[in-house]
Amino acid sequence: MERRSLMTVAVVVTLLLAGCSGLDPSGNTSTTDASTTAATTTTTQTTEPTTTTTSTSTTSTTTESWSKPAAPNKPLQNKMDEEDRDRMKSVQTETRAGGGFDLTVTADTRMEDVDPADHGTVVGEPYFLVYAGGSLDNKSRFSYVNGTLAERSSEVTQKENGEYTLEVDSEALEKANVEEGKVEVLVLLMDKDSEWDDIYGVRKVTVEYSSGK
Questions:
Q1: What is the pLDDT of residues 133-161, one digit of tens each?
Q2: Cβ(101)–Cβ(94) under 8 Å?
């Protein structure tokens, strides 16, 4: 009888222990959920304003006014012997729309052996002079020009029948106090020398001049 009571107690204890395994220390059944919180970091990129400086360059074009040409080396030496009097063959004139006029000169500008050797080279340096209202005193070895120098060309090429255009600006004629209308123009074919420039041709023409104003 006593043995049967002990077995009953043992069974009860076993059941009690099995029931306690499902309880938390406070006696309540608890379920723990692990939650993961993701921290999201937002990076804001700030772009500073860019200032663009635009430089505007203004180029002004200045029209150069007429300036008096360089005078020849004086006194001018007359080199127009009988063989050279035809070096200046013709001069054609044409009035320019903006004022002034052009001279188209045909001449023999060959000067292969015209200078003394002690000048450094025997080859001449031909160029032209234009005088407004000019006249030439050419009665001796040396020549003298009266009038206003309106144009001086650069050195020209040497050709037997060379053709050259000389531009005479209206301002040059105004400086010479030339009135509009017909004006006499003196054209000289020259050779540049270190001391005295030489004359190799002369032509005088009449030009219808307009200031273009």
A1: 888 887 777 888 988 899 999 999 999 99
A2: yes
